[in-house]
Amino acid sequence: MLAQQKLEIVALFQAALAPLTAGTDLAPVVVLERPRDPAHGDIACNIAMQLAKQFKTNPRELANKLVAALLADPAAKGIIESADVAGPGFINLRVAAGAKQSVVRTILQSGAQYGRSDAGAGKKVVIEFVSANPTGPLHVGHGRQAALGDALSSLFESQGYAVTREFYYNDAGVQIATLANSVQARLKGWRPGDAQWPESAYNGDYIADIADDFKAGKTVEASDGLPATASTDVDDIESIRAFAVTYLRNEQDIDMQSFGVKFDNYFLESSLYKDNKVHAAVDALIASGHTYEEGGALWLRTTEYGDDKDRVMKKSDGTYTYFVPDVAYHLVKWQRGFVQAINIQGSDHHGTIARVRGGLQALGLGIPQGYPDYVLHKMVTVMKDGEEVKISKRAGSYVTVRDLIEWSGNGDINRGRDAVRFFLISRKADTEFVFDVDVALATSDENPVYYVQYAHARICSALANWGGDEAQLANVDLSLLTTPHEARLLAKLAEYPEMVQRAQAELSPHQVAFYLRELAGELHSYYFAHKWLLDDEALKLARLALASATRQVLRNGLALIGVSAPNKM
C-alpha cells in the first residue's frame, strides 16, 4: 500500500491509543508490518503486545479494544476493510479495495515523480566510483563499479540528495612510471617477448597505439584538464608520461560515454601532493597525539579505532604508505561539505576501511565514525560461446568494458549498454557474478533485461492498439479491478516507493533490478490471463489504466539504473 495510506493507518492507531495513554508519559511507536502469510491480511501490528505490560492487561484484551476503536473511527472508512486479533495479540488489518486500487490514479497523476521524494533535503553526498588508474583500458570490474555507482547516484538523487559523481585518478606512483616505461620501450622498437622488454611492462596492444600516436606528434585531451602534445622524443620520459596518461584518460572517457555514465568531478591524486594536503593531514595526525615513531617509521594507532594492528604512515625511507593520501583525500571530501561519502571499490580494498576511518577519527574534527561508507564488489567472470573469456587483445590480459558492451549488443551500442548495466547490478555487490554474453543476446525470458523491457513494450503495443486518449485513464472507475492477478499487480505497484527508499538507504541498487523483474513477471502473467481490449468499455478502461500505471513504474525503475524503456521490441 502507499506510504500516505500507511501514515493514515498509523494515525488511526494513535487515535485509538490516545485515551489509554492520556495522563501518562507513554509515547508508543506504531510499527506496521506485512504478515508472513498473506491469508492473515495486508498489515499486521504488534502494538498491543508491546504495551500490555505497561497497562497491566492481557495483550489480546488490549488488542480487541484497539480494534474496536479503529473500526469505530469514521476516518477508517475507505482505508480499513476489516480488523481482527490473532495469536497472542497480533492485530491484522485488511485494507479496503478502493485504497489498494487508488495506487493506479496516484501513479498516473505523479508520472515520472512516482517513487521520488525530498527526504534528502538537499544534503550533499559524494559517490566515488570507477577511480581507475590511468594505465590501461577499463576492465569489467570497473564496469560493475560504473553500473553500481551511477545507479546508486540516481537513487540518492531520487530521494532529494545533492549528489556529486566523482572519479579519483591515481595519477601518481609506481604504476604511472611503469606505463611511461612501457610506452618508451615500444617507441624503441621493443615488443613483449623481446630480451629488452621490461619484465613489469604492460603488454596490451593499447601500449603500441599510444607509442604510434606519440611518434606522430599527436595531441590528446581528456574530459578535464589541459591537452597533451607529444614531443616525439623517445628519450623525453616526462612527455611520454604526460601523453600516455592523458591518452588513457581520454580512452576511459570514451568507455564511460558509451556506457552512458557522466561524472561531475575528476579528482587527481597528484593534486593532494601539489596542494600540500597530504603533508597537512600528516601534521594534523601528529599533533593529535595518535602517532608514534618506531624503527625509523611513523605509525598511526589505528587499533584505537577498530583496526587489527597499528599501521605505518611514513616508511623509514621517507615515503608515505598508500592509505595516507586516502585519509587526506577523504578529509578534503569532508571539508568540501559532503555529509556522506560513498566509495564503490573492489573487495580487495576491504583492508583499507579501518585505516581510512581510523585516520579520519584521529584528526578529532567531528567526522562521523562510519565516514566514508563503502560498497565493495566481487569479481565478474565473463562467459561467451559457453566458455570463460580471460584475454582481451585490446587490454592484453583482461576483458574490457568496451568489449562487453560490443559483444552484448552484437554491434548495437545502446542494446549492449542496457544489457551490461542491468546485468551488472542484478546481484548484490558482494557476490561474485557470471556475465553470460549469450544470455545477454537472447531475445527470450531467459534474458532478464529483455524480459523487463518487453513488458514495457507489450503495454505500449496494447495502448497503441486501443488508440484512445491516455489522459482519460487517470479518471476511470478502478473498482472493477478485482481479479487475483490485478490484486497482485496493484500490490506490487504500491511497493515501488518504499523499495526505492530502501535501496537508497541500504546502498543496494540490485533491489531495483529484482523489483523490475518481479513487476514484469506480474505484468506478463496478467496479460496472458486476462484480455485488456474488451467490449465492456468500463472494464477495458480500468485494465488499460492499470497497464499504463505499470508501464510508468517500469519506465521509472529502468531510468534509475540507466536502462532504456523501448516502445517496441
Describe the structure.
The chain is an alpha/beta fold and 569 residues long. It is 48% helix and 13% strand. It has 19 helices and 16 strands. The strands form five sheets. A five-stranded parallel sheet has the order 8-5-4-12-13, sandwiched between helices. A three-stranded antiparallel sheet has the order 1-3-2. A three-stranded antiparallel sheet has the order 9-10-11. Helix 4 (97-110) crosses helix 19 and helix 6 (174-187) packs across helix 8. The chain starts with a helix and ends in a 9-residue tail after the last helix.
List the defining traits of the structure above.
single chain; 569 residues; alpha/beta; five-stranded parallel sheet; three-stranded antiparallel sheet
Rg estimate, integer Å: 29 Å
Strand content: 5-15%
The largest sheet, given as strand count, sense and whether it forms a barrel, is:
5 strands, parallel
Q: What is the residue-mean pLDDT, rounded to a whole number?
A: 94
Number of helices: 19
Instruction: Report the strand count.
Output: 16
Inertia-based shape: flat
Q: What spatial order of strands do you see in the largest sheet?
A: 8-5-4-12-13
Helix-residue proportion: 40-55%
What class do helices, strands and sheet pairing give? alpha/beta
- Spans where pLDDT lies below 50 across 5 or more residues: none
Distance between the termini: 32 Å
In short:
With 569 residues, the chain is an alpha/beta fold. It is built from 19 helices and 16 strands.
